[in-house]
Write a structure and sequence with these properties.
By secondary structure, the chain is α/β, with parallel strands linked by helices. It is built from twelve helices and 16 strands. The longest helix is centred in the middle third of the chain and has 18 residues. It binds pyridoxal-5'-phosphate (PLP). The site of pyridoxal-5'-phosphate (PLP) has 14 residues, from strand 9 and helix 9.
Length: about 375
């Protein structure tokens, strides 16, 4: 890599490979296949490569272009479309994805037609809503009817299995009870169609604690994992669930200091409205030394989901293009031009990876 321009997002490929292999092995021991989810990193090929090198055979995303690029580079993988297909993108779905998540009969019928024209068969996982209230059939009988319809009526659609999504919109925790309902419904469908389903997909990173506790229902044999492999921040920091041997610093956000000054920490004058139409609350900590860095909300969206690696520094606030960091208590002697490193949570990762102003750099490459 050439000299870094800033802001930069470094991806340590060796650490990532370690995380992939750890989760793939944990899942394998429990009879579970991992789909490696790359939507949070804009389908970054260095991440796709690490997933494949770590033993993942299915790459998953909500966006077809990311799956297309993954497939062009790694012909042997299976591509899984995570977002229910739009009627406007069915050609792309049929051409570049092997399997998609679905819940609408109308879409499935249209997709069957597109596949017939292309002379292709496409796999589907039908989604069941277990209470999180995002996608999927809420009543199990609706899901059973849809599964029978796909199996009997749609010649170019292969019913690969059923799945669910939890811990997203409704923040609902995966449990043996709600995932057990998914397994029971799968069993009923298998009774009707007279064969077993290949995939019972029991959720995302938020389903991993069930594995650690040994409480995952037996029939679940597939998980779609992004955050838990890429960042491993949510389960340890928000759920209090810790994994041995997983890195939390695969990603490093690097931003450069453009000003260092000592100023009051409480704004001076009449507090009115900030750049985003809000009236924030400010804490008066007295006179403090702070650094301004050349990065802002346009790049990372949420400053409260960034954490300085220097534990003596803390983030004060940000605007579109500026990040203000309190460095009063830092033992290091920061200068203008120095670069500060940050850990990131999922929200900033998503934004940083799609932001053209942020340079992406692979460090510690695994080699082809
Ligand atoms: C994003 C997504 C995932 C992956 O979620 P993580 O929390 O990153 O593991 C899995 N399934 C679906 C349907 C998704 O949209």
């Amino acid at each position: 890599m050439n000299r870094l321009a800033y802001p930069a997002l470094e991806i340590d490929q060796k650490k990532l490979l370690n995380n992939v292999a750890e989760i793939v092995n944990l899942c394998k021991t429990n009879g579970i296949e991992v789909a490696g989810v790359v939507k949070g990193v804009n389908g970054e090929m260095g991440v796709v490569d690490s997933f494949v090198a770590g033993g993942v055979r299915q790459i998953a995303s909500s966006r077809i272009d990311q799956l297309k690029n993954s497939k062009l580079k790694h012909q042997n993988i299976e591509t899984l479309l995570l977002r229910l297909p739009m009627l406007s993108e069915l050609e792309g779905v049929a051409a570049w994805t092997d399997i998609s998540l679905n819940s609408e009969k109308q879409t499935l019928v249209a997709l069957n037609g597109v596949c017939e024209n292309l002379g292709k068969t496409h796999g589907v996982i039908l989604m069941m809503d277990l209470g999180d209230l995002r996608e999927g059939d809420f009543n199990d009988q609706d899901l059973i009817d849809l599964a029978i319809f796909v199996e009997k009526e749609l010649k170019y659609i292969k019913l690969e299995g059923v799945g669910t999504n939890l811990g997203c919109y409704g923040a609902i925790k995966p449990t043996p009870v709600n995932l057990g309902k998914l397994c029971d419904t799968a069993k009923t469908i298998e009774g009707h169609i007279g064969r077993s389903l290949r995939i019972i997909s029991g959720g995302a990173t938020s389903s991993l604690p069930l594995l650690l506790e040994g409480n995952m229902p037996d029939r679940v044999n597939h998980l779609r994992i992004g955050e838990g492999i890429l960042l491993n921040m949510d389960l340890p920091e928000l759920w209090g669930v810790n994994f041995d041997n997983l890195h939390q610093d695969v990603f490093t956000l690097k931003a450069q200091i453009i000003e260092i000054k000592t100023k009051p920490s409480y704004p001076v004058g009449e507090i009115f409205i900030d750049a985003f139409g809000h009236t924030p609350e400010y804490q008066d900590r007295g006179i403090r030394k702070r650094a301004i860095l050349g990065i802002g909300k346009q790049d990372f969206a949420m400053e409260d989901k960034l954490a300085p690696r220097d534990g003596e520094a803390f983030i004060v606030g940000s605007s579109s293009d500026h990040l203000i960091v309190d460095i009063e208590d830092c033992s290091g002697n920061y200068q203008v031009g120095d670069v500060m490193d940050f850990d990131i949570f999922y929200g900033p990762m998503l934004h940083l990876c799609t932001c053209p102003h942020v340079q992406k750099a692979i460090v510690n490459p695994i080699g082809e």
